[in-house]
Inverse folding.
C-alpha cells in the first residue's frame, strides 16, 4: 500500500507536523496535540501506538510497524488507515527514493482540513499533460526551498535537486513521454512519484492534450472563478490573514464540512429605529437586539443615513459586490448561528448552524480583538470577485479591499450613532471564515471583519 517502484524503490513516509506531540491518557488513549488543536485516538492498537510514536520523531513507513501478514495485519492496517484519515491535517507526507540521501520532497499541510491523497499508480496515463500551476511560487524560507500555491492546502518542501528539476521541466504542459525523455537520468518510479506528490499537493495541475496541433486543455486555465485574480493578488490574499499559511487563529482540528442547516429566514425589524435617548455605556458582550442589528446594517448600506459620513462611498451597483455575513453570539431575539444579510428583504438568511463553526469564528474574533470578551455579533465582509467593478487604476482585489475599508468605516460610524460598542478587526482567520461561511475562497472571499455589541 505504501511502497511503489521498480529498480529504485521509492517509499512514502509519514511524520507529524512541527510541534505536534503524542500524549498518553490514563485510560490508554492517545492524544495528538498540534497547533490545529487536539485529536484523540480512543483505542489505539499496538501498530497505531508504535506508528504515532515514530511519526513524532521523524518520517517513517507505516509498513514498518504492521504485522508480517494474515488477518492480524489486515486488522492493524484498517486501524492505521482510520487514524491517518482523522489526523491527515497533522501529517507530513515525505517521499524517499530508497537510498540514504534523505527525502526527495515533503508535503506539509497549511490548514487543519488539508487532505492529501496521491494516486496508488502515479504514472501519468497517455493523453494527459501536467504543468506547474500558474499561481504556484518557488521560494526559500531561508533554510528550505518551498513550492506553494494560494489555491492549495499544502506546501512542498524540496529537499533534493531531483524535485527542483522536475518542477523546472513542468514550466509548460508536458506529457509522460516528453517528461521521461527530458529527465531520463531520474529513475522512472521516482519521477512519477514526484509528479504525483506535486499534483496531489495542488502546486501542479493536470490537463489533456488539445486537438492536433492545438493547445493543451488544463482546467485551471478555463476556470472562470480565477478570471479576476492575478497570481500575486491571490497569493497576497491567501497570506494577508492567517488560515492558509500554516498559522491559524482557530485552534480546531475539525475536518468535516459541517451541518447544512434547513432554510431559515429571520426578518429584521424596521430598518431605521430611532437612536436611544438614554445613553447606555457600550459593551461588546451585551446581547444585541434584532432591531439594533437591522439598524446597523441598513445604515451602513444607506449613504444618506444620518450620521454616516457622506465622504465614504456606498457599495456600488444594484447587484452589490460585497456581502455581509453575520455570526450571532448573543442576541435576545436572534438564534445563535451564522447568517447572510439580505438587504432587499432586510432579513438574515441562515447559512450555517454548526456550533463548532460558530465558536471557531467567534474565537478568531476574540483573538483578533486583543483577547477581550467574545463579541455579541461578528460581521464578516465578503467580496464577490466577478462583481467587483473594474478599474484601470487598481486590480479587482485592490478595489475589493478599498470597498471593504469604506464599508468598515460606515459600520463604525453607524455603530457610534446607535451607541453600540464596535471594533474594526485588523485581521482574521481567512480559511476558517471561508469554510464556516460556505464560501469557495475564489469567487467569493472574506476581506474584512467587524464586531459589535
Amino acid at each position: 500500500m505504501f511502497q511503489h517502484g521498480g529498480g529504485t524503490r521509492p517509499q512514502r513516509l509519514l511524520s507529524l507536523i512541527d510541534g505536534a506531540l503524542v500524549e498518553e491518557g490514563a485510560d490508554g488513549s492517545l492524544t495528538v496535540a498540534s497547533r490545529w488543536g487536539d485529536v484523540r485516538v480512543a483505542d489505539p492498537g499496538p501498530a497505531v501506538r508504535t506508528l504515532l510514536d515514530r511519526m513524532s520523531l521523524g518520517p517513517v513507513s507505516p509498513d514498518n510497524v504492521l504485522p508480517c501478514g494474515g488477518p492480524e495485519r489486515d486488522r492493524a492496517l484498517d486501524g492505521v488507515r482510520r487514524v491517518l484519515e482523522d489526523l491527515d491535517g497533522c501529517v507530513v507526507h515525505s517521499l524517499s527514493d530508497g537510498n540514504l540521501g534523505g527525502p526527495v520532497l515533503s508535503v506539509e499541510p497549511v490548514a487543519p482540513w488539508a487532505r492529501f491523497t496521491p494516486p496508488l499508480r502515479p504514472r501519468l496515463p497517455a493523453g494527459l499533460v501536467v504543468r506547474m500551476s500558474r499561481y504556484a511560487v518557488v521560494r526559500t524560507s531561508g533554510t528550505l526551498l518551498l513550492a506553494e500555491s494560494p489555491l492549495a492546502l499544502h506546501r512542498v518542501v524540496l529537499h533534493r535537486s531531483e524535485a527542483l528539476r522536475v518542477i523546472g521541466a513542468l514550466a509548460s504542459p508536458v506529457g509522460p513521454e516528453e517528461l521521461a525523455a527530458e529527465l531520463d537520468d531520474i529513475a522512472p518510479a521516482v519521477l512519477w512519484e514526484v509528479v504525483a506528490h506535486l499534483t496531489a499537493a495542488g502546486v501542479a495541475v493536470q490537463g489533456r492534450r488539445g486537438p492536433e496541433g492545438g493547445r493543451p486543455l488544463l482546467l485551471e486555465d478555463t476556470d472562470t472563478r480565477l478570471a479576476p485574480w492575478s497570481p500575486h493578488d491571490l497569493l497576497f490574499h491567501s497570506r494577508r490573514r492567517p488560515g492558509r499559511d500554516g498559522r491559524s487563529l482557530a485552534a480546531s482540528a475539525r475536518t468535516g464540512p459541517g451541518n447544512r442547516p434547513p432554510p431559515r429566514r429571520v426578518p429584521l425589524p424596521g430598518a431605521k429605529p430611532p437612536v436611544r435617548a438614554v445613553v447606555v455605556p457600550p459593551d461588546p458582550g451585551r446581547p444585541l437586539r434584532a432591531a439594533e442589528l437591522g439598524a446597523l446594517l441598513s445604515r451602513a448600506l444607506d449613504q444618506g443615513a444620518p450620521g454616516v459620513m457622506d465622504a465614504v462611498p456606498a457599495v456600488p451597483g444594484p447587484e452589490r459586490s460585497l456581502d455581509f455575513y453575520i455570526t450571532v453570539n448573543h442576541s435576545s431575539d436572534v438564534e445563535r448561528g451564522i447568517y447572510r444579510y439580505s438587504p432587499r428583504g432586510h432579513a438574515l438568511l441562515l447559512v450555517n448552524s454548526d456550533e463548532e463553526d460558530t465558536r471557531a469564528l467567534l474565537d478568531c474574533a476574540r483573538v483578533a480583538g486583543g483577547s477581550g470578551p467574545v463579541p455579541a455579533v461578528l460581521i464578516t465582509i465578503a467580496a464577490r470577485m466577478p462583481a467587483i467593478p473594474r478599474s484601470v487604476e487598481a486590480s479587482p482585489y485592490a478595489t475589493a479591499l478599498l470597498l471593504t475599508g469604506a464599508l468598515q468605516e460606515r459600520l463604525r460610524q453607524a455603530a457610534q450613532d446607535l451607541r453600540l460598542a464596535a471594533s474594526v478587526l485588523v485581521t482574521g482567520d481567512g480559511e476558517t471564515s471561508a469554510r464556516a461561511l460556505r464560501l469557495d475562497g475564489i469567487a467569493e472571499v472574506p476581506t474584512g471583519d467587524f464586531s459589535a455589541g
The chain has eleven helices and 19 strands.
